[in-house]
Amino acid sequence: MHIHGGDIYNYQGGVENVLDFSANINPLGIPKNVIRAAAEGAAQSASYPDPHCRALRLALAQSEGADLRPENIICGNGAADLIFALALAQKPQKALLLAPGFHEYEQALRAVGCQIDYHFLQASAGFQPNIDELLRQVTPEVELLFFCNPNNPTGLALTRRELLPLLERCRQCGVLMVLDECFNAFLDEPADYTLKPLLAQYPNLFILKAFTKIYAMPGLRLGYGLCADCGLLTRLEEVSQPWRVSTPAQTAGLAALQETDYVSRAQALVKTERHFLRQGLMDLGWQVYNSQANYLFFQCPNQPDLAAACRARGVLLRDCSNYVGLTPGFYRIAVRTRAENEKLLAVLQQAGERRPNQCSH
User: Fold this and answer.
1) Would you say residue 1 has pLDDT above 90?
2) Pairing between strand 205-210 and 176-180?
């Protein structure tokens, strides 16, 4: 059962009439050069795709820097493919997750019979992780930790300095720390939040990334992982299907890595529009949390049916009530263009109930 955002195909008014704020995709849309490259890849698809993504991994090593080599990189059919491969390759008996957090971590771990402990993020603390408590929860019995930075759905991020004690604690306890940086590029200062420079020092660190969000190409399914532990990457290859990344996805990925101006424009747009949307939500009297990503997380406790009301008006929100640790009344919206954001705020005002203004976290 699909429980995520982005399910525009279930919208009764037709996909051409829906405005999707439920999926956190680059508001600029897929670059034209990426579309052309994908088409060229489709024309080459009479042959099997390169099972090792050689050209793409070489280009990623050059693009990512941090002294990465192609052998430190693995590509997958989206980041979700690698999440499931990690669970299958490691088969952990016990893992630790933040809640609320991305559902695929739990789904992949449950599929291999793993016991899951949660670090529950508290609304009273603005959904910021309690690092001291999290460090206490990392014990030698825990084999794997998934940590999304910035977190999904809250959009809150921790800097490298703030994450370092957790990474060190994981190394001391023999815990594989899987850091999901799929939304890192949307942060105002991405370099301050990535753990990429520490990969060589911490072979227990695996960084997840994807083309999905920043290049607006979720339909092509392309993700990748960075890790200094080549043994782990070999185990991931052994539990994965051989041709999991199609030729169109590989050629599109190569073209996307050239789109540096596009990424810069998207970062500037998201920064401006995130502030605009946050203020608009606050003006409606709702509790808005301090997201640093290309989406906003807010609470409207008196409107548990807000998503349905907006859907009836052709706008999709992400109802977050099915996240572990959340209750009805929490929502997530993507940051899009000014015209789209203005339409969203107008629909929210129609669908929602005005309440006394509250300060955001």
Assistant:
1) no
2) parallel
Distances, alpha carbon 22 to alpha carbons 62, 154, 179, in Å:
33, 13, 23
Compute CA distances 165 → 106, 142, 158, 162, 169, whole Å: 24, 16, 12, 7, 6
| CA nearest to 229, candidates 172, 177, 163, 162 | 177
Q: Report, as an integer, the average pLDDT of 236-244.
A: 96
165-178 confidence digits (pLDDT tens): 999 999 999 999 99
Calculate helix-pair angle for 32-43, 247-256, nearest 10 degrees.
Answer: 150
Q: Nearest CA to 126 among 95, 103, 104, 158?
A: 158
Task: Work out the number of other CB atoms within 10 angstroms of the CB of residue 290.
Answer: 16
Give the integer Cα–Cα distance in Å for 25 and 220. 13
The model's pLDDT over 72-109, given as tens digits with 9 standing for 90+, comes to: 999 999 999 999 999 999 999 999 999 999 999 999 99
CB atoms within 10 A of CB 105: 27
Which tokens sit at 10?
Answer: 């279930």
3-state per-residue secondary structure call for 247-265: HHHHHHHHHHCCCHHHHHH
3-44 pLDDT, tens per residue? 555 554 454 555 457 899 999 999 999 999 999 999 999 999
CA–CA distances in Å: residue 329 to residues 74, 287, 294, 299, 355: 38, 10, 20, 6, 14
- pTM (predicted TM-score): 0.93
- In eight-state DSSP terms, residue 323 is S
14 C-beta neighbours (distance < 10 Å), count: 10
Which of 83-87, 116-120, 192-196, 356-360 bottoms out in mean pLDDT, i.e. has the lowest? 356-360
Q: Compute CA 26 distance to the chain's CA centroid, rounded to the nearest angstrom.
A: 12
Q: Is 52 helix (H, G, I), strand (E, B) or coil?
A: coil
**CA dist list (Å): 183 to 125, 142, 219, 272, 305:** 22, 26, 17, 17, 28
